Amino acid sequence: MLRYLLLLPLIFCINIFADVSLSSPKIKLNDKDQRIIEFKIENESINDGDIILNEYKTNNPIDESFIAYTLINDYGNYQTFTIVLDDEYLKDYFSFKILIKENFAKDIFIYLPSKVRNTFNNSKPNKPERISSETTFSLAKSRNVVSNKVEQVEQVEKVEK
Length: 161
Known about the structure:
The chain is of the alpha+beta class and 161 residues long. Helices cover 33% and strands 30% of the residues. The termini are far apart. It is elongated. β7 (93-100) and β8 form a beta hairpin. The protein has helices spanning 2-18, 115-122, 133-160; strands at 21-22, 26-29, 35-42, 51-54, 67-74, 79-85, 93-100, 104-111. It folds into 2 domains: 16-122, Sandwich (Immunoglobulin-like); 128-161.
């Protein structure tokens, strides 16, 4: 029994160091209003060409016409993989399958900040115009005139009956 207890931590340590660790995606907007998807990769040293992007849940290569560029940054103990989407990509989601050195594969579906919502948020909100006291007085006066005419019509109708 003691042997099994000693082997158990060793098995977990081997498993921890053997797997590629891929973080959850971070989504940002850059200065050019391009949507950026960034992953942190640990426990694996990757180079250009080690990462392949395929269509979601398939092994077909992804259409790269809507990807502006991809970037790998090395920070010593971890690396980041960045996907920058083209301005013309208007969907609210991005889905793909990532393969790292052909031994790690993961299907990823990401909701993105909407381009339509961003254009509405960037436009200036319509502020209601202040009504001056003169306008308020003239509106009140015109309402009184209308109500007086209604009363006169009602009186004429009563007299005619």
